[in-house]
Amino acid sequence: MSEIAERLAALVPKLAGDGAEINGLTRLTGGASMETWAFSAVPAAGDAIPLILRRGTSPLARHPGKKPPLRIEAELIAAAVANGVPAPNVVHICSEPDGLGEAYIMARVSGETLGKRIATDPAFAPARAVLARQCGAALARIHATPPVAGVETLDVRATLSGYEETWRASGLVRPTIEAAFRWLERRVPTAGALTLVHGDFRNGNIMVDAQTGLAAVLDWELAHVGDPAEDIGWICCNSWRFGQPGKRVGGFGDLDDLLAGYVEAGGAPIDAARVDFWQMLGSLKWGVMTTMMHARWAADPSAGPERAVIGRRLSETETDIVAIIERSAS
Amino acid sequence: MITHPTAQALVEGVARWLPVDGSASGFALRVARNALEIAARDMALGPAADARAVERLRALTGGDGTRDALDRRLTEMIRAGEIAPDDPALIAHMKACALDSLAIDQPKYAHELG
């Protein structure tokens, strides 16, 4: 039995009663700083409870993307659920005696997360009919959730100049990327109410049921306090439309429907120009990231050409950038 | 055209990596094939795309030189505010560049540019 299995076996009676055991422990993802495991808690009597363990693997999770520690992430998800956001229930935040390091346990929700299937599979047509509106409602509730202590506030100008610095440091000369920075600089939204922002709300990070639509909002590790329009712009980025550019929201829905669902659920109206700003910044961020991936490959090509090929995906983001500039100029 | 990586660097990267003991996964081999296809399209389409870009860049900047030098000049003009990011002539140029690059790098990418 692995150490993690032993620790979970010791913990699970606290979650599912005396005599409870674990089964089906499987690692789903493992990265440099974080891993995700699926398992079930099997009570002495009754049905197995499907669960997820999220756990940090480095003693202190420091990250250039500024990830909040897992405790903050877990508290945030719990606060969002309490405020009516469809998200997995957090059932346990681990502490020292659990022996699992920085970690928490949440419900394992079933559904589809593959963006391509959600955007194009005929079986998901019923979900697509309601999903944009549901996403709007979920975002309104996320943005109305009081941020828990320790959540970072990101300033839009600081974010923008951070990316520009990274871009300058690359030494690359791309007129379209330069135009994107200048276009954004002229359109920094006037300061409005800052709210909790999910930070990675896109097709691929939402769990969807083919019939009923949105089941859960996942992947909260980039949550922060900022402009609520950021989440709406990000899910509109063409990079997350999975080959369906005519469906601005995640390749499955229309922005009008998302905004209607947002306002209906109590969100303050957000104007189209503000969404454009954040969609542009989203595309630009992804473009800058592709050049960082290429730089990593150039420094050490032994791992194979995957990151080199990603370097060529800058063409995609430049196309998306020009489309936004052209649309907003007409 | 994107030069990070260049077509040559893509081909060299695949050649240097390609394990001859059959240990590469199907996924890695598909990535490698994609890299070679990008390089091949770059060699076939790149020179004409560059020539077209140079023509447009001369008109836009009033300067002359290689694509690299003219790109540099245009970038400086945009940065200095001498040409607005949504100037119609600039948009037309960026659009043509984007479509030429996409034809090389990602011809199947579904986008919104008309």
Automatic annotation (TrEMBL), chain B:
<protein>
    <submittedName>
        <fullName>DUF6285 domain-containing protein</fullName>
    </submittedName>
</protein>
<dbReference type="InterPro" id="IPR046252">
    <property type="entry name" value="DUF6285"/>
</dbReference>
<feature type="domain" description="DUF6285">
    <location>
        <begin position="25"/>
        <end position="109"/>
    </location>
</feature>
<dbReference type="Pfam" id="PF19802">
    <property type="entry name" value="DUF6285"/>
</dbReference>
